[in-house]
Amino acid sequence: MPEEIAPWITFRPEIKVLDCSIRDGGLMNNHMFEDETVRRVYEANIAAGVDYMEMGYKGSKDIYAPSEYGGWKRSSEDDIRRIVGDNDTPIKLSVMADAERTDYHTDILPCEDSVLDLIRVATYIHQIPTAVDMTKDAKDKGYEVTINLMAVCSVQDRELEQALETFCETDVDTIYLLDSWGTFYSEQIEDLAKRYLKHMEGTGKELGIHAHNNQQLAFANTIEAIIRGANRVDATMMGIGRGAGNCPMELLIGFLKNPKFHLRPILQCIQDIIVPLREEMEWGYTVPYAITGQLTQHPRTAMALRASEDKDEYVRFYDECTTSDE
Amino acid sequence: MPEEIAPWITFRPEIKVLDCSIRDGGLMNNHMFEDETVRRVYEANIAAGVDYMEMGYKGSKDIYAPSEYGGWKRSSEDDIRRIVGDNDTPIKLSVMADAERTDYHTDILPCEDSVLDLIRVATYIHQIPTAVDMTKDAKDKGYEVTINLMAVCSVQDRELEQALETFCETDVDTIYLLDSWGTFYSEQIEDLAKRYLKHMEGTGKELGIHAHNNQQLAFANTIEAIIRGANRVDATMMGIGRGAGNCPMELLIGFLKNPKFHLRPILQCIQDIIVPLREEMEWGYTVPYAITGQLTQHPRTAMALRASEDKDEYVRFYDECTTSDE
Question: Which residues of A fall within a CB distance of 8 Å from B293?
C-alpha cells in the first residue's frame, strides 16, 4: 500500500478541525474581545474550511460578573448571533460549558432555538457526575456533545480508567484527550490515546485532542494524537490561548493537507487581527511555561510571573517551583 | 520490564548533548558575539553538565573577511583559548567546518596542539568527496569527527542511500541527521532515523540529530530521533539559532532526566545573557518560517522578510513562495 511508504503526503478525510481562538484566547484577556475580532476570526475560519468554531464559554452569570469578565465568558444566543446572524454557512459553532460553572438547564437553549451545534463539556476528575448530567442535558436538547477531561496529567490511572468507562456509557459523540498543563511528551500522548481508544472501541465515538504549548509540543502532540487515531482536533490562530497557548492553526492546516482546507485566509486573519492583538496581550512559549510543564504543574504561577515586572526572573521562579514543602 | 510501562521517567546514559548556541546563533548576527557572552554560555554548559560546546565555525579567512564577519566564523585557536584557556574542565569543544569553505589542511591544527576535541564536517550532497577528505584529515589529526549532511529534505532517496553508504566507509564517529529547513514531521524523522541506523548497523558509529524550529517541531523531532536511537543531540540556549532557531536546551535537559544534567545554570544563563540578546537580534518561530517549512524551502526568504519593514506581511510572502514558475 502506498500509505506505508510516505503516509505524510496523503490525508485523512475524517479529521475535523475546531478553532478555539476566542474561547481559549479569552483566558488571557478576561474574554474581552471586540466584536470585529470575533467576526474576522469567524470569517477566516469559514474561508479556510475549518469545521467548527468555538464562540467562547457558556459561563454562569452569577459566577462571572460583567464587571469582571467580558461577554465571551457568558456567550448568550444574542452575543453569538450579533456575529454570525443565523450562521448560514458550512461552519458549525460550539461553546464550552465548564462543569459546576454553567447554569446549563437554563442557559443552554434547545438546539432548534440556537445557532449553536456543539456543546463541549469540560470537567475535572472530581466533577464527572455533574459533567455527565450536562452531556445528557445537551444531548436531550439535540446537540452534538463532547466531554473534555481536564488536567489528565494529574489523574491517577485507575481513576482515568473509571472516567473513560463512564464516558463511554454516555451518548457523547467525542471524548477529548487534553494536555491542559502542556506537560506530556509524545510517548505519553501515544500511551493515553491508546487507553482512550481501547475503551471507546465499538462505541462509534471519536477521539479529540487539545494540546497546550508549554514545552513547544502542542503541534507535535496534536500530530501524535492524529497518528494514533484522533479525528477531532483543536487549534487556534497563531497559537493564541492560555499561557503558552495552543496548537497553531497555520501549522495544523499545513500538516493536514486535506484540499478542503486553505491556509491563505488563516494567514490574512493572523496578519490583520492576531499580530496586532499580540502587541496588547501576551501568549505563547516562554521559559517559565517550560518549567511548570516539566514539573507537571498548573501554569498559573508562570502566568502570574509573566504578568509581573519580574517576568524574566527564571531562576528564582524555578527555585520557588521546586521547593519541597510536603 | 519496567521500561515498557512508562519509559519516559527513566533515562538513557548514552545520550550526549552538544550546545551550538554560539555557532548556529552566529548565523543571525554575523558571528559577532562579545567574549563575555561566549564565556557565560561556556560556563553555563559546564555547570549544567552539557557534554560538548561548539565554539563557532572554522571558516576560511579568504571567504569570510573580518570586515564582514565576526571572529566566531573563523574561530582560531587563540580566539577559543581567550575564552576557555586550556579548558581544564569535563566539557569537550567542537567547531563546525563547512565543506569547500574551510582551509582545513592549514586551519585545523593537530589535536594535540589544540584545545578542540571534535570537528563537525558539514556538507551538502554535492560536496561529499570534499567532506570525506575533511573527515579523514581531522581523524588523522587525532580528533573525534562527525559528518553532517545538510538539507536532507532536498536530497533524493537513492542519493541519500549512496551518501550514507559512503559515510559508513569513513572513520567518522557520528553521522548527523539534520532538518536544516525545519520541514520534517515526526513520521519523516522516524523514517530517516531508521534509514540512517540501518546503514550504520555494526559500524559502532552514533546517530546525531540537529533540528530547526520552523514548524515548532525542533524539540519534538529531537525527541523522536532520540526514541529511534540518536545518542548525539544538538540544542541551544532558548533555541537561539538561524531563523526559527533550534531545539531549546532548557526543554531538552528537562526531558533527558539524566542526573548529570542540571537545568538551573541553563536558566541563569538564559536570564542573564540570552534574554537581553533577544532584544537586539531576532530568532525563533514566526509565521513566515511555518510557510517555508511547509513548502520545503530554505528559510532565507523568511529571514529576509523578518529583517525588513514588511516582516508581518504573511499573505504577500505566502503568495510569493507559492507562485509557480517552473
Answer: 254
Give the A:B interface size as CB pairs under 8 Å.
Answer: 113
In the predicted structure, residue A30 carries a pLDDT above the cut 90: yes
Q: Are residues A236 and A98 in the same domain?
A: yes
ipTM for this prediction: 0.96
Both B276 and B299 in one domain: the answer is no
Interface residues on A facing B, Cβ-Cβ cutoff 8 A: 6-8, 185-188, 191, 213, 215-221, 223-224, 227, 238, 248, 250-251, 254-255, 263-264, 267-268, 270-271, 275, 287, 290-291, 293-294, 312-315, 318-319
Q: Is residue A108 part of a domain?
A: yes
pLDDT above 90 (res A264): yes
Total domains present in chain A: 2
| Residue B180: CATH number of its domain | 3.20.20.70
Partners of B318 on chain A (C-beta within 8 Å) are 263-264, 267
Domain that residue A88 falls in: 9-280
- What is the reported pLDDT for A263? 98
Long-range contacts of A186-192 (CB under 8 A, 24+ apart): A186/A217, A186/A220, A186/A221, A186/A224, A186/B186, A186/B220, A186/B223, A186/B224, A186/B227, A187/B7, A187/B8, A187/B227, A188/B8, A189/A221, A189/A224, A189/A225, A189/A228, A190/A224, A190/A228, A191/B6, A192/A152
Residue A168 three-state SS: helix
> In chain A, what residues touch B313 (CB-CB under 8 Å)?
271
Q: CA A292 to CA A180: how far, in whole Å?
A: 12
| Dihedral angle, C-alpha A314, A319, A322, A326, nearest 10 ° | -140
pLDDT at B1: 42
